[in-house]
Design goal:
Length: 304
């Protein structure tokens, strides 16, 4: 969610003593990156550096870091104020216009970019994602916004107050991206009825069979949870867990929830087919060592 934490990530990339083994030039599956809140496609201290590192380790690989907007500044702004439906439509068009992505790609979503990539897969018929990597994605939403990245404290406080008291008003849903995946466990039915994004892609009210079918096309769906995350509340949302309805202290795991027991999204089927993977990494939001990323993400999922 918070692009500023990428500064720590990039320091790790630059100074970690781990020496990754480069592989020979090959026909690697292309990679699409989608950044999180407060970040852009191409900042040199965040996804720009990630893109370069992937290109170094996988020589010749085609890496696209999605820019949602006409500039990097516009891209950052859209992460706060452009409804996910519009962002996904833009991403769908960008990907369909790239012939090098026509045979499929591996997708890596950073924070809110992870649920947007999943929404892209579920909604964009011509997009084929092979391995979907979710790094700190909020797949069951959030119930707290302790840090909103590059915005000023006053604006951040205003956003927090809006979400706490008016998240499901129509104008807030239209105006603020984070409202569209705000999940209030104290008002569960209100969330299901009035969330204009997350409730839909999670098949909360009705089951969209196309969403289920398109998730089944994945080779692997990898959910990475940051064990010391202080940005995302609750952090279990990164594994599709969330608070039990009616309170905000006890956690319900994915396998305890209706989305799994009723298989409303096809996640149980993915799990039974050994395509759903849960990884934990020590660190705060989006903070990891490149050696860990090489061993757990690049080697098993990106070198194919």
């Amino acid at each position: 969610m918070n692009g500023i934490t990428f500064k720590y990530l990039i320091l790790t990339l630059l100074f970690n003593t781990f020496s990754a083994n480069k592989v020979k030039d090959g026909n690697f599956t292309p990679i699409v990156l989608w950044h999180g809140m407060g970040d852009s496609c191409c900042f040199s201290f965040s996804l720009g550096a990630v893109k370069e590192k992937l290109e170094e380790i996988l020589p010749g690989v085609h890496v696209v870091s999605l820019r949602i907007g006409s500039s990097e500044v516009n891209d950052v702004e859209n992460g706060y104020f452009l409804h996910p439906d519009k962002q996904i439509n833009m991403a769908c068009n960008l990907i369909q216009a790239d012939p090098l992505l026509s045979d499929g790609f591996n997708g890596i979503g950073f924070s809110q970019g992870a649920q947007f990539l999943r929404g892209l897969l579920q909604r964009c018929p011509k997009v084929h994602i092979k391995n979907l990597i979710s790094l700190g994605g909020q797949h069951q939403g959030v119930y707290g916004l302790p840090n909103c990245g590059s915005l000023s404290h006053s604006i951040c406080d205003y956003i927090r107050r809006l979400l706490n008291h008016a998240a499901y008003l129509e104008w807030v849903q239209k105006a603020l991206v984070q409202a569209t995946y705000w999940h209030d466990p104290l008002h569960e039915q209100e969330y299901k009825n009035y969330s204009t994004f997350l409730s839909d892609i999670n098949n909360e009210i009705t089951i969209n069979d196309e969403y289920v079918q398109r998730l089944q096309t994945l080779d692997n769906f990898v959910l990475v949870k940051f064990d010391n995350d202080t940005i995302v509340e609750p952090r279990e949302t990164e594994w599709f867990g969330f608070y039990k309805p009616g309170q905000s202290s006890m956690i319900q795991t994915l396998k305890e929830s209706p989305i799994y027991t009723e298989d409303r999204l096809g996640l149980r089927k993915l799990d039974e087919d050994s395509k759903l993977h849960f990884l934990g990494v020590i660190g705060n939001h989006l903070q990891f060592e490149w050696g860990w990323f090489q061993k757990n993400i690049i080697d098993p999922y990106l070198k194919n």
